[in-house]
């Protein structure tokens, strides 16, 4: 339940704090006193969008806090899921900064407005005159029936499945579109792929080809240089091989004269081994280098093929070409295996569709079963609200398409007079009748939901006299199961409240300010008398006000 509300620097409110009680509370006040401002501030706590026009003093921030008692309403899982601290007395705070930015906190933890809105939906229902129009809305009508049918778990399962179904259907459509596009290019892609497969290039082959061809094109120069190198090594007496051998022998003789010479001897011996290996490899290379026009032509052709394919596919390296090959393989395979891919996706969709159909059947039957009970309760309540001849006809038909809440199509019809035709609510019900029907609906819903608080903003619009007494009794009955707060202009309703708050304006320091206070018994009498007769309170109005309060007490 809403335990308290604190508002600073909002519209006509400088600083306001008010505590609320369980049961049935009334809020009254003259037109323009600021009741809508109070609801606007509460709306910010519940997650509505804010703007700079909300600030009373533009260069100071606005702070609105609501304290809620939530220990009886099984909300621990919600707090855990959203990484919030669960407190029995939960405080929701909104701050609107002079820059225009706003921040939201739940128990001092910063949170997103989407999370705040989800939580507020579980805490409080603010029913305004505008919301009465929801009665004619199919989605709201389903909500009422599903509450009586206890369909929440089935609906959750259906909505999860529908999300998967839509995702799979989208993927299936994309596959079909890709198949159409791929089919139109299939022959050309197959030709390109066959060309690359036949070429059979290997990774890094380009470098090897270019290096080999460079060698073959300069074979005479290479062979001449190798011969010169070999001659330098093999010259008798003055060749590198004999000279290095003599050098090694001299250093080896020095090695017995200390560690330094010994290390140098090891190093020169190692150098001699490397020198011999290099000499051997050069000899082998010299023996293997021959001029071959056929070899040059073969490597030229291979390299030219590579260059042509790179140009054709607009790539710069052989690795890029291999990637192109992989892409073409996927495209060609997608067409050649199209039937299998489509079939697999269809099977996947059909499995989800079967589960959705099962959920839809459960929803349909439970709704059909709940409708007679809903009609019975509505008609009984409306008789007590001075609509004795009102009757309903609610038809539910199972359609073929999936909607957001199943496959059902709903027709919600009403007749307010004996012998009159059944029509939709929009066509037949007046404003006062719509208010009473909505009150009856909310009264029924409170028995099937675990909502802590409901606020009625002038649900008594368009009614008076005995009807207002009946409306007050319905709200009073509801307050035995939940916290009910009613904003009203009717004294008959105001007198039924257990607690009475008044919204009023004062002038202070050349400013008009809105405030709220809880009324004592004597103050309630004065407020009711003023509601009955106006500012100039007649003695008879005082007597009538006392009678109204006395009737409620007894």
TrEMBL record:
Location of the RecF/RecN/SMC N-terminal domain: 3-510
Entry keyword annotation includes Coiled coil: yes
UniProt cross-references to InterPro entries, sorted A to Z: DNA_recomb/repair_RecN, P-loop_NTPase, RecF/RecN/SMC_N
Keywords per UniProt: ATP-binding, Coiled coil, DNA damage, DNA repair, Nucleotide-binding
Coiled coil: 318-355
UniProt function note: May be involved in recombinational repair of damaged DNA.
Family per similarity comment: Belongs to the RecN family.
Protein name: DNA repair protein RecN
Species, as recorded: Aureibaculum flavum
Taxon lineage: Bacteria, Pseudomonadati, Bacteroidota, Flavobacteriia, Flavobacteriales
């Amino acid at each position: 339940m809403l335990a308290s509300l604190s508002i600073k620097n909002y519209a006509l409110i400088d600083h306001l704090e008010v505590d609320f009680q369980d049961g049935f509370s009334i809020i009254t006040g003259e037109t323009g006193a600021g009741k809508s401002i109070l609801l606007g501030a509460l709306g910010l706590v519940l997650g509505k969008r804010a703007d700079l026009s909300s600030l009373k003093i533009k260069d100071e921030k606005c702070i609105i806090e609501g304290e809620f008692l939530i220990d009886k309403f099984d909300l621990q899982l919600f707090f855990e899921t959203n990484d919030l601290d669960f407190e029995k007395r939960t405080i929701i705070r909104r701050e609107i900064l002079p820059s225009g930015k706003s921040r939201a906190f739940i128990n001092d933890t910063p949170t997103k407005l989407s999370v705040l809105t989800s939580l507020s939906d579980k805490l409080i229902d603010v029913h305004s005159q505008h919301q009465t129009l929801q009665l004619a809305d199919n989605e709201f009508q389903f909500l009422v029936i599903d509450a009586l049918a206890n369909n929440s778990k089935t609906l959750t399962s259906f909505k999860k499945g529908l999300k998967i179904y839509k995702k799979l259907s989208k993927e299936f459509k994309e596959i079909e579109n890709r198949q159409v596009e791929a089919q139109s290019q299939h022959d050309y892609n197959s030709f390109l792929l066959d060309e690359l497969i036949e070429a059979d290039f290997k990774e890094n082959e380009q470098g090897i080809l270019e290096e080999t061809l460079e060698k073959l094109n300069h074979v005479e120069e290479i062979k001449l240089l190798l011969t010169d190198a070999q001659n330098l090594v093999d010259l008798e007496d003055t060749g590198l091989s004999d000279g290095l051998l003599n050098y090694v022998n001299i250093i080896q003789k020095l090695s017995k004269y200390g560690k330094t010479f010994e290390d140098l001897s090891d190093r020169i011996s190692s150098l001699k081994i490397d020198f011999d290996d290099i000499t051997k490899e050069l000899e082998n290379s010299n023996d293997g280098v021959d001029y071959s026009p056929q070899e040059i032509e073969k490597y030229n052709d291979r390299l030219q093929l590579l260059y042509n394919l790179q140009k054709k596919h607009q790539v710069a390296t052989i690795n890029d070409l291999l990637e192109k090959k992989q892409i073409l393989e996927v495209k060609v395979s997608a067409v050649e295996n199209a039937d299998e891919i489509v079939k697999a996706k269809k099977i996947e969709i059909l499995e989800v569709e079967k589960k959705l159909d099962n959920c839809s059947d459960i929803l349909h039957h439970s709704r059909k079963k709940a409708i007679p009970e809903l009609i019975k309760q509505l008609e009984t309540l409306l008789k007590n609200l001075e609509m004795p001849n009102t009757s309903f006809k609610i038809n539910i038909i199972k359609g073929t398409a999936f909607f957001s809440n199943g496959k059902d199509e709903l027709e919600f019809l009403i007749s307010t007079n004996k012998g009159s035709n059944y029509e939709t609510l929009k066509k037949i019900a007046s404003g006062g009748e719509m208010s009473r029907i909505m009150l009856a609906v909310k009264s029924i819903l409170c028995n099937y939901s675990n909502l802590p608080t409901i606020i009625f903003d002038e649900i008594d619009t368009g009614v008076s006299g005995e009807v207002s007494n009946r409306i007050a009794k319905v709200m009073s009955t509801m307050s035995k199961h939940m916290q009910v707060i009613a904003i009203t202009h009717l004294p008959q309703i105001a007198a039924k409240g257990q607690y009475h708050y008044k919204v009023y304006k004062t002038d202070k320091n050349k400013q008009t300010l809105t405030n709220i206070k809880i009324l004592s018994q004597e103050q309630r009498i004065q407020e009711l008398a003023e509601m009955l007769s106006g500012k100039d309170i007649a003695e008879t109005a005082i007597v009538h006000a006392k009678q109204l309060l006395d009737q409620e007490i007894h």
